[in-house]
Amino acid sequence: MAQDENGGHELTPASSSAVDVHRTGDPGTAVIVRDAVENPGFPPHRPRVTDLDPKKERRAERTVYTLFYLSIVGSVWAVAAYMAFPIDDSDPGSVRLNNLFIGIGIALALLAIGIGAVHWGKALMHEKEGVDLRHPVRGSEATTERAAEIFRQADEESGFNRRTLVRNSLIGALIAFPLPAVVLFRGLAPQNVDPVEALSQTMWAKGVKLTRDPSGTPIKASDVTLGSVFHVIPEGLNDAEDMLEQKAKAAVLLMRLKPEDLHVSKGRENWNYDGIVAYSKICTHVGCPVALYEQQTHHLLCPCHQSQFDITHEAEVIFGPAKRPLPQLPITVDADGYLVARSDFHEPVGPSFWERH
Hints:
Blueprint: E1 2-3, E2 10-11, H1 49-52, H2 54-84, H3 92-123, H4 141-158, H5 164-176, H6 179-184, H7 195-200, E3 210-212, E4 229-234, H8 243-250, E5 252-256, E6 276-280, E7 292-294, E8 299-301, E9 308-310, E10 316-319, E11 331-333, E12 339-341
Helix pairs in contact: 2-3, 2-5
């Protein structure tokens, strides 16, 4: 019996097959009582049919690797369906067919992997119950050696190395399964257009006026005062058929600083006009809109992940996860005093992509 320090009440420790626990404290909160249920232990082991009959064991193994091969077929089918049933914007039925056959392939790939893994565990892997007692995170050398032995034992019991057809078919299914997703990502880019070229060019070109977003009103250099910031789009953007796609690449922030505050690198001497500079609004981290300007420090802030860019040093990154400065749009004024672009951006805007040079 154990004695409580406060009242002297008796507490009966619960019986356990692993350890005897003696606790003291307030009897009102004690969870160990006199009539605690005894640990019944594990039920008797009942062998499976695959444990008793080698033929059924081999049949279960064939079922498992056949399911994994079916998963590979489903993944390949989804990729083939994406190419065999293309989406035609003028034909709603093509969308249904594309989704139907791709969905069938992906569903088959998923279900076959899942059912095969469950059947492997139920019919072939070692299925005797055991107790894993908790222990400190860092053990002794003997514990480390025991852990390695457990891994070896698990490998033997699962048959991962011994059942080569099951193992290899599973590896093949896991390799093939992501392929439909990789192929489907191609559908996110414009169809029948080189994605690299589409991402490398915007609507900006020599002589294109800078206009206010969203009204499309042209901006004169005299309208831009010190400390002000304008959200800018290229002239004609609102009339474009793919307006949203073009805006996602061409959106610009326009600011005016004192010319002496700008640190201009060689070759960019004429990219600003009397302290007015224009930079891409698309963050080089993951493409969020860089929309916050601090006029005292001349810093731009991306609100998504807090990347900061210093406008006085050509929008170089001074904080956050972004790795590249914001691309600068070369600007000047036309004969009427309106701000116009000298050219397109000299580098792709936004985050890096697979073929960015």
